[in-house]
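Escalation from tier 1.

The customer reports that the assembly of two entities below gives different structure tokens on two consecutive runs. Tier 1 could not reproduce it. I'm attaching the input and our single run for tier 2 to review.
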Amino acid sequence: MLKIEGLRAEVGGTEILKGLTLEVPTGEVHAIMGPNGAGKSTLSYVLTGRPGYEVTAGSAELDGEDLLALLPNERAAKGMFLSFQYPLEIPGVPALTFIRTALNAQRKARGEADVTAPEFMKLVRLRAGELKMDFDMLKRALNVGFSGGEKKRMEILQMAMLSPRLSILDETDSGLDIDALRIVSEGVNALRGPDRSMLVITHYQRLLDYIRPDRVHVLAGGRIVASGGPELALELEREGYDKYAGAA
Amino acid sequence: MVAVKKTVQQVENLEKYQHGFVTSIEQDFAPKGLSADTIAFISEKKGEPKWMLDWRMAAYERWLALNEPDWAKVSFPKIDFQDSYYYAAPKERTGPASLDEVDPEILETYAKLGIPLREQEVLAGVIGSPRYAVDAVFDSVSVVTTFKKELAAVGVIFCPMSEAIREHPELVQKYLGTVVPVSDNYYACLNSAVFSDGSFVYIPPGVRCPMELSTYFRINAAESGQFERTLIIADAGSYVSYLEGCTAPMRDENQLHAAVVELVALDDAEIKYSTVQNWYPGDPETGRGGIYNFVTKRADCRGARSKVSWTQVETGSAITWKYPSCILRGEGSVGEFYSIAITNGRQQADTGTKMIHLGANTRSRIISKGISAGRSSNTYRGLVSIHPKAGGARNFTQCDSLLIGKTCAAHTVPYVEARNGSCVLEHEATTTRLSEDQLFYAMQRGFSQEEAVQLLVNGFVKEVLQELPMEFAVEAQKLVAISLEGSVG
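Tier 1 run:
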């Protein structure tokens, strides 16, 4: 599914990713952990094409196709989704309108017909219910005046509605209380499947109790410095990142 | 959002300024330049009574003594008033024509602009499609007014101003110049001297006008100005919704459009006045050409509990200088101003409103949304004035500015005068830049950049768009999209 090789990227002239190599096979969930400033969010932005993140070397492919040559919306249409660490507010645009228009924009790019209003409403009601979201919230402007936890739920609702093939969750657990964390995790787990992959970025092992990864990678100093099974997350929780500090 | 998608498709098929063509027809002109002779010529052409000519001449005398205002935040070279035509009209037109007598070239022009002039076409439209009457003003004259008979059946008068002067002198004499006095300001005074056609509307007591009324202004002739005059009177307990639209060809020279619009609302009457202004804005790169839109619009809420609502979508013109205002004279009268002003390229806009609270318990509401892009400058200038007798007056003002890119400017200049202690005034203002982060967020969800800009802009202006009559809201949304096309590089 996702194949990254020797990826180097800089922001404002400072190199953040320094030769990152990572592969996420189809159907697997991989976690990326690492200390602050290791380049975790940078990786998510580079993969989704945020302006200002310049790739200087290496490659990133989605199903063998060069991702880096595509616009952010083209990557979205290919099935890439980023759950933002800090979701943006979109004044004046109701969440329902935003999600439906986004879904249809992606479908159009893939040469598919628009989803009809009744189909959409039925599905969005179902998904919002699963995430224990008040449906009236979806009629309000997207994320405007939402709490941190509500914004994160809204991200997962969008993910559920867009049903991406590769989801990147950037610190989705931050700002969530324990109940919300459980609900959001259930929402994420419901999207796991043999043809979908996920990259879960987090500081803490806590989230991985709910979203069990197939593989865990340690990102430090702009590179993957260690990889292992779920037990690696527990080890990091116990011993911290000091061991990998030298790797930078 | 279906509308957004539709907008995008339409934008893809359109040139930047789609109304920039010229209609080639033979026209009558007044001699170039401004003089007493020019004014006599115009008055003669229109077959006006002597009182009207005297009124014009008095205005001209006053104008000669006035100076151009210089307080607006706009800059342009001094206008040479002798280097312009003050009257241009399609040839061989005498009196109100039936549609069959109108030059086919002109009909073609309106067809291209999408303005329905044939009543049967409007009537034959899709079931539930809007019906609205049109007064089509081409340079200095009205070429046709539709649905006059239907409107007359309920007592509504909707006709060109020149016809009203001949046919309804008692109404014109009673109201003309009572809202915007002859010497109110430099451009209004000029208008009073040389005005050509505009629309005249009278709604009799208790009548709810059965359809939307609209005037479509088209400047076609080169080196000419358009000086229309519109007067709308809503008698006691009546209601009317009126819309004006404006376009002009693309030309290298600047053309002056100095209109005066006067609205009078008597007891319990309501006037809803909407403008979709899309004059040629000039070349976006060099700033050459474009219309100078120097307009005086004012409403007098003369009667108790009367209401006037101004809604404007200003996307065109090289320079816009206009402040649609309400004099809230009647007790409990209400004034509203909803505005979207968009500047792009080298456009300059200094626009806003004045709410003059004279009567007790008068209320006003101002919602202004300014969007600047390119190298443009966009200023909101507004006055809320509470006079000593306006006890219990209320105003709510909200001015939001949105900046797109790094080379444009937005300014907000609100003036507030309160001379009665029992009034309640609220003012909110925000200035935001269309953020790269928001654009990226929307693009990550699948929107193209243009779609993302439109989504965010539509969200920003939504409060105002929903004040427009439904059928025009769609047009306006399209216009907003076109005006900002290519504004994010």
